[in-house]
Design goal:
The protein has strands at 21-23, 40-42, 44-45, 51-52, 55-60, 66-70, 75-79, 85-90. The chain is mainly beta.
Length: 111
């Protein structure tokens, strides 16, 4: 007897290919002829506040804010759900004095 096995991507690192981070609520029916489009986007290419250079991970925190890891700028940026920049914080340095590049991000059930 065979069972359907859910697809699991390879263990290779996944990089968000777009410069802009898109937050989308998909309201398109499952078999629609047109692909869904994001309700809004935020961020742009660069190293300033609210800008990205290789965004990698994204999570919504228990505070309702959107946290985006920016591997290229070695930091985590924080936004409101409407895309308004709130703050950023740098990653710590390793034993060689180099910044640790952030990748994935997650929150525990307790925050």
């Amino acid at each position: 007897m065979s069972r359907d096995v859910p697809f699991r991507p390879s263990s290779a690192r996944f990089r968000i290919p777009a410069v802009m981070i898109s937050i989308a609520i998909l309201a398109t029916p499952a078999f629609a002829d047109t692909p869904p489009s994001p309700l809004f986007t935020f961020g742009s290419l660069g190293s300033g506040a609210g800008q990205f250079d290789h965004p990698y991970g994204i999570a919504i925190g228990p505070d309702g804010l959107v946290y985006v890891t920016d591997e290229g700028n070695d930091r985590v940026e924080v936004f409101k759900k409407d895309g308004t920049f709130v703050s950023q914080f740098p990653m710590p340095l390793n034993e060689n004095g180099e910044a640790v590049s952030p990748t994935g991000i997650a929150f525990s059930p307790s925050g």
